[in-house]
Amino acid sequence: MTPIRVWILAATAVAGTLALPACSSSPKADGPRELTPEDFAASSPTPASGTPSGAAPGLSKPGTAAKPATAGQPVPVIAPDAPASNDAASASTPDPGDKAVASMLDRMPKPVIVATTRKAGQDEAYTMDAMVGQVNGQAIYATALFEPIHDQLLALGRARTRLQFRQQARQLIGSRLDQIVTDALILGEAERDLSDQEQQGLQQMLKEERANLVRRYGGTPSLANEELRRTEGKSIDQKITETRQKLIVQKYMRQKLYPKINVTRRDIERYYRDRYADFNPPPGRVLRVIRVAEPSQAQRIDDALASGKPFAQIAGEPSNQYKRDTGGLMEKVVGDEIFDPKPLNQAVLALKIGEHTPRIKVGDNFWWVSLESFDSGQGKPLRDVQLEIEERLKRQRFNALSTQYRARLFNEGSYNPVDEMGDSLLAVALSRYAKPE
């Protein structure tokens, strides 16, 4: 195995990931049930009022050291022989030919961890991690951002040229960065919105969650930490931090947005009327068809069907002239007028699921049709689906409000320019995942 030395180039402690489970997923109308007991034991939570500031004071300027890691955040281990080498620091910059990215990196916090591998007596350095920016004073690290898309980046690096990797990785990284920034901005507001009573309720919930993790992953804190790191690459503290952030954001978003959602009876009736065919579909059938022209081929098909050979398998043979690539599949057809030749159409209408017609000659061709499935098209009256429609409308409006709210936070928040952070992250990804020049 190639020896690897990790050099710590700055006296900064790597903060934990800011990534949260996506808050824009479709919630249930009555809110996430995990917000128990009683929404952090709050007496009577009310929607947050006023315009959020979106910006926490004290945003660190690019190039300054990150804040020390808090509980639940990983701290890098400094190797005993870790020299603070300027030569190693210079190896953490991106490809010299990429002047635009290099220029951006000069104005951003510098990469803090560089790995050096020895190959054939020569040292090769590549960036392992970097603080690429801050949101509301909290550092964003490359490793935390890459974690959910690591496998995708790894696959791209193996299968694509460096130029192709740059183009496709930029999209992946940009989407992930947008999510992290908006979630971090929401978290900053949500934490300021918690009352003392809610903080106490939340702490009790997290204490119980920690105990559950210990029981589930080994029975003791040390065993649970070891098992969690092995299976998920995270410690108990990191899991608790993620759970805390998720609960706070869920509660805040529900409290902030649900009071603005009002679905009336008229809204439900209009939705049903506009989508009447969805709730009252006509009868439909999925069929498989075999059509051949030669009598000798027709006889072989009859013999194969008589022997019990599956219809779909026979329909996929070269002799079939109807969509043999898909096993003669005819996607769902609506109504009872399926085939123009009446003998063939009547034979199909008489079929039960799994049955097929006998050989039917139409013109110069021989036909067989099998009924794969049948949808009776039984309609649903409004009274049977009104609760389902109300739920759909609430989810739609919650998602729309959530998108608007996130966009406003993004515009008003305090963070390093997203484009610059994205360029820094791309430089790290090129160093870490892409093929060398």
Could you walk me through the main structural features you see in this protein, from its secondary elements to its overall organization?
The protein is an alpha+beta fold and 437 residues long. The chain has two domains: 4-261 and 394-432, no CATH class; 281-375, Chitinase A, domain 3 (Roll), CATH 3.10.50.40. 47% of the residues lie in helices and 13% in strands. Strands 7-6-9-8 form a four-stranded antiparallel β-sheet. The longest helix has 32 residues, at 162-193. It is elongated. The model is unreliable at 1-33, 42-98 and 100-120 (pLDDT under 50).
Low-confidence stretches: 1-33, 42-98, 100-120
> How many strand units?
9
Tell me what portion of residues adopts beta-strand conformation. Answer: 5-15%
Structural class: alpha+beta
Averaged pLDDT: 74
Number of helical stretches of at least 4 residues: 16
Please give the domain count. 2
Shape: elongated
Helix content class: 40-55%
CA-CA gap between termini: 24 Å
Strand order of the largest sheet: 7-6-9-8
Please state the oligomeric state of the protein chains shown: single chain
Main beta sheet: 4 strands, antiparallel
Supply Rg: 31 Å
